[in-house]
Specification:
With 243 residues, chain A is of the alpha/beta class. Chain A has a single domain, classed as Rossmann fold, CATH 3.40.50. Chain A has 8 helices and 10 strands. With 494 residues, chain B is α+β, with helices and mostly antiparallel strands. The chains are: A alpha/beta (243), B alpha+beta (494).
Chain lengths: 243, 494
């Protein structure tokens, strides 16, 4: 059973694009003036593709990431994820799509400090399942979470809380959490930005390893050109446009 | 799943939640306790007050300004007969109520003087004179006589068989043991209370009629059984219409204790015929006390029926005044008499409930404040949950559930505390009085010698329900704000 999550889904490997963004625009209102941040971005991510998003600060990387990650509504344009028009869905359905199709890894880990490492990893499954469905599958889900944390070298850290973990450990917990519902798309926002180079390299290694193993589509935001070089494709952003 | 899980985890993680829970516990506990005591107080008062009152009181208006011009019968027997004919009536006894002054009492009563000194005049006390029927001699002799007459084939109905003395308040007052700290002296035989007491001071002098004095009056005058007591009153002269002063010496047969302060302080009982004689034979009764078989079932109906029947028979006449219900105010229920007192207690209970509900509101505000703080503190968590796919509705439910746990824990602990407190309030009060060295519940002030408390399930359920409603309403605002939080604001910065 646990092997199921490690095998890339065949349909995923050869199907239609995981993400298609067309004409995405985003502007903010600042003291009554329109401040454009995204000026019509088109982006297509194929299954199992790894894409690095490069650009100077203020180029609109983060905003694009939020729009693609369904956290921020674009002013114009469309985003299709797993074949569904994401911003046309209801709030509930969009939340469900985010839960099922997108895994996030943030620069600052963003773990819940009240929860243990294991519970943090289980959180996406808790959100996905109702109370009774979850309790029914509890043993199986816990086993899966334990297995994935063990594989990430955190076997001794299952019941530790985030403040008791090092930065690298936290980021690995965050990665395990992002992948727990087995999403086709992983969005990583400078995942090594807060780590020293050795730890960062290890975490990055883990991300690419999982990307290959699962046939994930990876969208990686970074400053670092050496990191970007490891991705199959590089997308540069400048002044709200992909260049 | 995450909603229950996270709400419980957040609840446990912050000790401030405990303050909210304790607040609800105290509010619910206090509400239940106070309402139980007030309910007990009301019921106990009703019982005491009713114990000293007949179920119905027939009070014929005894003046000459009648609508028809016909005189009111001076004899109670006509009305009494009509009353006891009704199957719903258990007993009917007439009594004569008048007011007088104690001219002299206690040790000073022995030597009569024509002139009162100023200090003695200042000590004259107004009293209520109540003349009642005592059937004891008939009761004792009746059955034997009835049996004899029955043998001869003559149906025998004693004239006053229906006034059942042992159901009257006087009998209850005589049978009640005297207050431990007062100097009461019960009569020898409560069934024959006006039997002459052993005469003191040598036993000479004319034979005097016996009176029974309220216990507090008895002790304040330092009376003893067998003492003489001089009473004075004013009566209308039936012939001239002028008022005349009448005074007479009586002998004290003993004291009674009604448990009601005013009565024990102001009332003197004597035989109805003796009082009628003292008043110059102008009046024989002023009211008829009626005991019903089941007051709760048909007491009010009976009052209306009886008034009509008595008026038809001419036993009472009507002065043309009616209230909204068509009642002429001459047959009243005991509740009519105590409406103000019972209304005041009931009113107090409602006011108390409203006041204490404010505590609940304060507890609700505490929950509001704590949750608002928690939402601010957990902004980042809310952003993370959104990123992981929790819809706003789920965020709302998570924080609302924290309020729900607060209410559940607080209300159930409060209910437990309140109910247990109400059930054991007397021992708690005694323990607390002992610890503090202050008497919290002064048993001399009230009718009862224990704190009454009645736990009723409906008010308890309403209080618990109210606690839930207020807490959830107060939790709803921060929960709603949490649901509307922009996840990006929460996620963007560390």
């Amino acid at each position: 059973m646990e092997m199921r999550t490690q095998e890339p889904t065949p349909a995923r490997a050869a199907g239609q694009p995981v993400l298609v963004a067309k004409g995405v625009e985003k502007h903010f209102l600042l003291a009554g003036n329109k401040l454009p941040v995204l000026r019509g971005v088109d982006l297509e991510l194929a299954p199992a593709e790894s894409v690095a998003l490069l650009g100077s600060s203020g180029a609109g990387k983060s905003t694009l990431l939020h729009v693609l990650g369904l956290l921020e509504r674009p002013s114009a344009g469309t985003v299709r994820i797993a074949g569904r028009e994401a911003w046309g869905l209801s709030i509930q359905e969009r939340a469900r799509l985010r839960n099922q199709a997108i895994g996030f890894v943030f620069q600052f880990y963003h773990l819940l400090s009240e929860l243990t490492a294991l519970e943090n990893v289980l959180l996406p499954a808790m959100i996905a399942h109702g109370r009774f469905a979850y309790l029914k599958r509890r043993a199986e889900l816990r086993e899966r979470a334990t297995e994935s944390l063990t594989r990430f070298g955190l076997a001794e850290r299952l019941s530790h809380r985030p403040p008791q973990l090092s930065g690298g450990e936290r980021q690995r917990v965050a990665l395990a959490r992002a992948l727990f519902n087995d999403p086709p798309l992983l969005i990583a926002d400078e995942p090594t930005g807060n780590l020293d180079s050795t730890t960062g390299a290890a975490v990055l290694e883990l991300i690419f390893e999982e990307q290959r193993r699962r046939g994930l589509t990876l969208l990686l935001v970074t400053h670092d050109t050496t990191v970007a070089a490891r991705c199959a494709r590089t997308v540069h952003m400048h002044d709200g446009r992909v260049v | 799943m995450y909603r229950t899980f996270l709400s419980w985890r957040y609840l446990r993680a912050r000790l401030t939640n405990l303050i909210g829970i304790v607040g609800i516990t105290v509010a619910v506990g206090a509400l239940i306790l106070i309402l139980s005591i007030m309910t007990g107080f009301l019921e106990e008062t009703k019982r005491t007050v009713r114990g000293n009152l007949a179920d119905l009181i027939v009070t014929p208006i005894q003046d000459t300004r009648s609508v028809t011009g016909e005189p009111v019968p001076k004899d109670a027997r006509i009305a009494q007969r009509i009353l006891v004919e009704d199957a719903r009536v258990a007993a009917a006894s007439p009594r004569l109520v008048w007011y007088g002054l104690i001219a002299q009492g206690g040790d000073r009563a022995g030597h009569s003087r024509d002139v009162l000194t100023d200090s003695e005049a200042g000590r004259m006390m107004g009293v209520q004179l109540v003349g009642v029927d005592v059937r004891s001699h008939e009761r004792l002799g009746g059955p034997a006589l009835a049996g004899m007459l029955a043998l001869l084939g003559v149906p025998f109905v004693p004239e006053r068989v229906h006034d059942d003395f042992d159901t009257t308040d006087l009998y209850a007052g005589l049978a009640r043991p005297p207050h431990p700290r007062r100097l009461g002296a019960p009569v020898e035989n409560p069934l024959d209370p006006f039997a002459p007491p052993p005469v003191r001071r040598g036993g000479s002098g004319p034979r005097r009629a016996a009176v029974i004095v309220g216990e507090q009056l008895f002790s304040s005058l330092r009376l003893r059984r067998g003492d003489e007591l001089e009473l004075a009153t004013v009566v209308p002269d039936p012939l001239t219409g002028k008022v005349a002063i009448s005074n007479r010496k009586f002998v004290v047969a003993g004291s009674f204790r009604s448990g009601e302060n005013e009565m024990d302080l102001e009332r003197i009982y004597l035989d109805r015929r003796e009082l009628g004689d003292f008043l110059g034979g102008t009046m024989s009764f002023s009211e008829i006390l009626v005991k019903t078989r089941d007051y709760d079932a048909h007491g009010r109906r009976l009052a209306v029926d009886m008034e009509r029947k008595l008026a038809e028979a001419g036993a009472i006449w009507w002065n043309g005044i009616e209230d909204d219900l068509g009642r002429r105010g001459q047959v009243r229920t005991w509740e009519d008499f105590r409406r103000t007192l019972l209304g005041a207690i009931e009113n107090e209970r409602v006011l108390m409930a409203i006041m204490l509900s404010l505590i609940l509101l304060v507890a609700g505000f505490t929950i509001f404040a704590i949750l608002t703080m928690m939402v601010a503190e957990k902004r980042r968590d809310i952003g993370i949950l959104t990123a992981l796919g929790a819809p706003p509705r789920g965020i709302l439910a998570t924080f609302l559930l924290i309020g729900f746990w607060d209410a559940l824990l607080g209300a159930s602990m409060g209910a437990l505390l309140g109910v247990q407190g109400a059930l054991h309030i007397d021992s708690i009060e005694q323990w607390l009085s002992g610890v503090l060295g202050v008497q919290i519940f002064n048993r001399d002030v009230y009718f009862f010698d224990r704190i009454p408390a009645v736990v009723e399930p409906v008010p308890v359920a309403m209080i618990v329900g109210g606690a839930f409603a207020i807490t959830l309403a107060c939790a709803a605002v921060p929960a709603w704000r949490a649901a509307r939080l922009d996840p990006l604001v929460a996620l963007r910065y560390e």
